[in-house]
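Re: that backbone. Tokens:
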């Protein structure tokens, strides 16, 4: 029989309250006091475990994207599979949606979301999308790879899927990656 340490239960309550508070109030308006009140603990406990609001946000936004297995797929299908997975996940996961919204409205939130996407989606993108210098002639794009997540994330954070515009090329950016 395993027992849950009180500190583990307290941390879980803090993170749950923080995710809900960041989702409802956004990063700027969420306060340590309000999060502690929601978790039913003293604000000093939040500070003890997470140091400050930024540390709490980093822990609360530690999201596992849960990418599907892509190994057997042809490269040309990977983009569609990833977009479908992301949209399905976004529709059912309020925490992910809330963290993306914070990422759109707050610089620290944007940096954290970029970090999460870079860690989890970056290896897939690097394996599928060639470096612009290595792309075949006529397929090169001056668009930096680091901005690849921003457009879909911004769309998904701000609009329901039915209101997302169809994907189209931006003038001067060249063609999109062949895998997407």
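Recovered sequence:
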């Amino acid at each position: 029989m395993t027992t849950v340490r009180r500190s583990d239960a307290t941390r879980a309550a803090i993170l749950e309250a923080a995710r809900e508070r960041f989702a409802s109030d956004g990063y700027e308006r969420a306060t340590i006091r309000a999060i502690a009140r929601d978790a039913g603990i003293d604000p000093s406990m939040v500070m003890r475990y997470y140091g400050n609001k930024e540390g709490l946000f980093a822990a609360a936004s530690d999201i596992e994207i849960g990418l599907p297995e892509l190994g057997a797929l042809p490269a040309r299908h990977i983009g569609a599979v990833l977009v479908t997975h992301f949209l399905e996940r976004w529709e059912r996961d309020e925490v992910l949606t809330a963290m993306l919204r914070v990422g759109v409205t707050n610089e620290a939130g944007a940096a954290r979301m970029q970090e999460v996407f870079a860690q989890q989606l970056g290896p897939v993108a690097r394996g599928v999308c060639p470096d612009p210098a290595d792309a075949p002639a006529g397929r090169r794009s001056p668009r930096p790879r680091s901005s690849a997540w921003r457009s879909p994330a911004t769309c998904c954070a701000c609009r329901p899927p039915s209101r997302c515009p169809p994907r189209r090329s931006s003038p001067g950016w060249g063609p999109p990656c062949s895998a997407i």
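The first helix runs from residue 6 to 29. Residues 143-151, 153-180 have pLDDT under 50 and may be disordered.
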